[in-house]
Amino acid sequence: MIAYIKGSFVVKSPAHAIIEANGIGYEMQISLHTYSAIKDLSTGLLHTYLHITENGQTFFGFAEPAEKEMFLLLIGVSGVGAATARMMLSGLRPHEISQAIAQGNTALLATVKGIGKKTAERLVLELRDKISKKEMDVTGLSNANNLISVDDDAVQALIALGIGRPAAENAVKKIMLTKPELSLEEIIKQSLKNL
Fold first, then answer.
1. Residue 165, φ and ψ in degrees, nearest 5
2. Is 22 helix (H, G, I), strand (E, B) or coil?
3. For the chain, which has fewer Cβ within 10 Å, the N-terminal or C-terminal residue?
4. Domains recognised in the chain with CATH numbers
5. Tens of pLDDT along 103-133?
6. DSSP letter for each residue of 127-191
7. CA angle (34, 35, 41) in 5-degree steps
């Protein structure tokens, strides 16, 4: 599986992008949020997912890992196809979808074209536990690029320093909620001060 492609953006539109890497142009379906992230870039990286069906193969590109992760969760739900998942990610950010699912807010989910009341209820039913297992709080999957990895890295660093996992997770979560813009080093320092 190709995890990401890094190269030059040859074509960018709200629905798709073509990224050239090593002389090969990869066409990818993208969400509006990914388009917003790449529209002013000439080069960059897109996290990818190759969707294979009996009718063909489609590449999907995502500006951030959280968007790809949410896409994979969404297409795992019965009745939600890749096009619908992309539509959801164009209408709502990953953290908004995560929060709506965690809170059982089917009304918000149903505002997306192609998602009716029954599909929204199925999304909540099937994904609420999966989102909880990933230890995502109600602020969502991501408040910024790579928030999940920064969060995890900070927790792992604190554990390596001898702090217990629950205390480390609570300390990092408090810092991330109040100061999500901090660097990894600053998050670790602030967390240590608050322990």
1. -55, -50
2. coil
3. N
4. 4-62 (2.40.50.140), 65-133 (1.10.150.20), 147-194 (1.10.8)
5. 899 999 998 888 889 999 999 999 988 886 6
6. HHHHHHHTT--TT-S-SSTTHHHHHHHHHHHHHHTT--HHHHHHHHHHHHHH-TT--HHHHHHHH
7. 100
pTM for the model stands at 0.67
- Which residues lie below 8 Å from residue 19, measured CB to CB, with a gap of 6+? 5, 6, 7, 8, 9, 10, 25, 26, 28, 44, 46, 61
Q: Which two tokens stand for residue 38?
A: 């790449």
Q: Which distant-in-sequence residues (6+ apart) come within 8 Å of 114 by Cβ?
A: 83, 84, 87
Burial pattern 5-29, b for ≥16 Cβ within 10 A else e, equals: bebebeebeeebbbbebeeeebebb
User: Token pair 């990933």 is at which residue?
Assistant: 134
Query: Residues 150, 104: contact at Cβ < 8 Å?
Result: no
For residue range 160-174, list pLDDT tens digits in order.
777 888 888 888 888
